[in-house]
Structures are given as C-alpha cells and as structure tokens.
Fold this protein.
Amino acid sequence: MSSRILVSTGEPAGIGPDISLALAMHELPATAIFLGNVDMLRERASVLGIETRVRPLADVREATPHSPGLMQVLESALAAPVVAGSPDTANATYVLELLDRGARLCLDGTAAALVTAPVQKSIINETGIPFSGHTEYLAERTETPLPVMMLVGGTLRVALVTTHLALKDVAAFIDADRIEQTIRVLAQDLERYFGIARPRIRVLGLNPHAGERGVLGREEIEIIAPALEALRRLGLTLLGPSPADTAFTPDALADVDAVLAMYHDQGLPVIKALGFGRVVNVTLGLPIVRTSVDHGTALELAGTGNASAASLDDAYRLAERLAQDRAQ
C-alpha cells in the first residue's frame, strides 16, 4: 500500500492554498492527502484557473495513490469567509486544527509524514493563543522536549540551537545542556534520516569572530567549547566554535555534513540566499516526520497565480523519502 503523506494547506488567506493546488497537479510519490477546506480550495482553484479536481474525504483510508490533477482533501470547517491576502483571526483555530489533525494521524501511524504550508503567526497570536512557529507547536503536540529546526538546500544543512526567539534573549537562553542535547538530536537524525553514519558538524560561535578569545564575548570559552569537548569525548565529530562569517565558505563546508548555528538569523539567511524557493525546513527530534517550505504566507501573492510551489514540492518529496527511511 502506498504511504500517506499529509499536506496542511496553512493560512487560508495566504499562498498555502495556491501552492497546494499547484502541487496537486504534479506527479507525486505516495498518497497525497491535503488538510483544508474543500469549498475554499475549489474557489481558489477557480480564481487561479488551476484545473485541479478537489475530492473531499470522510476518512484518510478512502484516499488513493496520487494522480496529477486530483486533490484529495480531509476537510476542516472554516469559521469565516476567506479573502485572499486578508487573514481573519476567526480562522486561526482552523489553521491550528489542520496541524493538530495532521500530528494525530502521524502519531497513530495512519499517515507517514506531515508537510506544512506557511501560517500567519501574528494572526494566531492576536487571538490570544501563543504561537511562535510550527516547530514549537508540533513539539508541544507530540510531547517532544527538544525539537531541532534544520533547513536543507542541496548538500547544505543548517540547524539551529534557538529558533523563534528575540535576539536580545538568545545569549541568556543558550547553555551547555541545550547545546549538547541539540547536537545529540542533530547527529542522531542525520544518521537516521540521511544515512550519515558519523556526521561531521561545524558549530558556530555566538559572538563575532567566535568571541575573539574572549575579547568580544566569553560564551564560546565558558559554554560552547566545553559542551563540544564533552561530546567529542563520546565520539562525535565536531568542529568549532567557528566564526560565523567564514563558516559558509566552500572550503569550510567541504568537510562537514551540517552547520549548527546559535540563532535563527545567524544561519538561515545564508542557506536561503543560496537556494531560496528550493530549501526545505525539517523538524528533527519529533516522533513524526515533518517538513515545510522555506517561506512565509506571502499575502500579497495570494490569489494572483504568481506564487511558486517549488519549495512545497521539495518538502513533499523529502518528507516521502524520510518517511521511507524511518520505516526501514
């Protein structure tokens, strides 16, 4: 039987429905099941001129292996009408229901993986529901103590110690235990999902020039370096702490399987600059396979036909491959 890959269509007023409809037109491995609202998707397909046939499912077990032009949808109800480009806080619970449903179906083994289109964090937070991102939300729903965000673009993999955190809070949040646990998860899942038996990981410093021997900060000396040394004694192959400004040169990347950055905008601008639109976000450490696009809701593009489904296509294909690796 073909494995089932779930695709959450995300914020209904954003480009999530657009790129999901476009994805359904592609040749895809496995059984693609989209999580969303049937009427909204049909209306958006009409606006975009996409000839996707939207088929509602009462149960995921009704789904058949994917064929281009067929969008099989496990439906959730919207609370308010959708206007492309104008998110409505009334639909925030709908967006979260898609994620909840996807996580449940993966946890109980009904589905093999969850792929997520972008959501509008601000709209969810305006309802009073704290939401910093998919990574943290799905970790909570799957009772995962430490999720690790990693972006994959070609042969470059960049993981993060901290994710959606204000820059002023990063230094206080980083400690040796968090660094050690993050590296353990990263190393474990590089082996489990990517077949890298002894991953080589370059770990960045927190400060410019990795602290310049303490002149520009002591976190490298007092926190990061001791954490790396403790893990080296256990057999892990770790380089660093390395200055972030030279860690992404071709020579520096030639001998590593992944780079671990201390915070979001230390590592992600590099990989997105090198491959934006074809980069995939993978959440490591979860008991389920989850991938996502490398971009946001792009409200200004919703309903225009100008949104690219390339990252979602890559996310889907990587999820399917990771699910296969996990099953072996």
Summary: Residues 21 and 33 are 12 Å apart (CA to CA). The chain has two domains: 1-144+286-328, 148-280.
